[in-house]
Amino acid sequence: MSTSTEAAAVAAPSEAPTSHRHKKPPLSEGARADRKLAFLLCAPAVIVMIAVAAYPIGYAVYLSLQKYNLAFPNAVKFVGLDNYGAVLTSAYWWQALKVTVIITVFSVLFELVIGMALAELMFRTLFGRGLIRTIALIPYGIVTVAAAYGWLYAWTPNEGYLSALFNNSAPLTSTVPSLAIIILAEVWKTTPFMALLLLSGLAQVPGDLEKAARVDGATVWQRLTRITLPLMKSAILVALLFRSADAFRIFDNIYVLTDGGNNTYSVSILGYDNLFNALNLGIGSAISILIFICVAIMAAVFIWGFGAAAPGANLTR
Amino acid sequence: MAAAATTTTRQKVGWGAGNTAAIVIVAIPLLWIVSLSFKTPAAITDPSFWPAQWTWGNYSGILTTATFVRPLLNSIGIGLIATFIAVAFASMAAYAVARLAFPGKRLLVAGALLVSIFPQISLVTPLYNIERVLKLFNTWPGLILPYVAFGLPMAVYILAAFFQQIPWQLEKAAKVDGATPWQAFTKVIAPLAAPGMVTSAILVFMFCWNEFLFAISLTSTLGARTAPAALAFFSGSSQFTTPTGPIAAAAVVITIPIIIFVSVFQRRIVSGLTSGAVKG
Known about the structure:
The complex is a heterodimer. Chain A is mainly alpha-helical. Chain A is 71% helix and 1% strand. Chain A has a two-stranded antiparallel sheet.
């Protein structure tokens, strides 16, 4: 494992080869010092992550292979992949997956576009930059449940201003409008997250390059697509990766707005119901693992799509 | 900036319109929550945007009880400590990922991502069991540890992506000039990395600040309960009403430290690089 990792890192194309990274069998002193430093630097992070996450993740995998319902604590037994079979043949799972994918695709798409515009604004606006940056980030700072209650009241007929604005309509009582409002709440809340990550990426685009392109007569659009966005690739990847992983696991907003009613339940709501309401630890854990697999596939696609911009994929620029 | 002299009225109007649009979109749902926090219990169900009758009742209600003030202090302490540790550990690991060749790097990068995408509803129960055994349940470290662990992956990714964009040549030049790898890190890379570190600090702090699931499951008293978890213990004016007013007021109060935190740190997110730095 370790040798193949090393080989992959070494084989990465390198425009400016550094002397201490050639694959001479005996490691040079510099390479050995690099390695030692790397292990020391990674140790604290690795130890904390393993200490906290290893056992719970292993336990969830173990539970997902058991028939284990807290209502029948004496009937625990190993059932292999039966729980997964039960979930994957259930119409509830596929409905939840459909809802989750719709919410993820639309909210991440809107957030990427609006977030990019907001990042440009936070980065370049001529006046009130500090004010804009601070205000724009507030929605992400609000406790999700409280913000969700705000939307719930706003859309409740006879109680909220938005419902009143639309003829006292009750959009949270049917599927499509409910999903639209869930996406709206999600986009309003988490676009700042996207925008902040993109802003930090924008801060890395050398200003002179932009200026030189402008002098050479490049249009705004050309500067954005040819200079800014390519140089921001890794920031965009990180933003997409973590935002879509979060969107796919959406819980609080749905829990408050519809509680999964009218076929608006996501995979996380389904998992929660099985774990904490039905107390079916086996099925609930299998749902969790399946969510995990879906998110992992999504992440792999993003990382593959971005190639060299992925963290650790390429040592040199 | 230097563009001030050449700024046209059209540009001013354009950016001004952008500013206004952003503020309005953010502010309307925000002001609605503020408005709810000033409504009397009877007027909560009144669809008018602003309260007909303003009251401080919701605020004085929550701020005079330890059930909210103590959790607020816990939140600040736990959030700051966890953010500091997570960003420190993450910068070290991200530096190694972006700059050094070592076996197991891909495993680390992939493993960190897997930790952060695992559904947390499945992690709560085993964590609860461990913390009971280790006597970490209902303590500050009992929340700080998971917050560091689940804040780390995102911080590592943000910082590794950031470190990767920092020009190699500068670090090499420092080493040629006799700097140790550690000096190259603290003197050359860290200042260039400041915007990335600030970004990750803001996001990790917000994650700790808003986290609900662990906060509610891994605490049992005011000793360690954080503000979002405290919301769940609010009661309405009667048993059958949702405590919307107090929740809205608490949401407003909880948001104020975030505003202070962001407004202090956002000015560090500026362009630290010019292409001139890479010449030669």
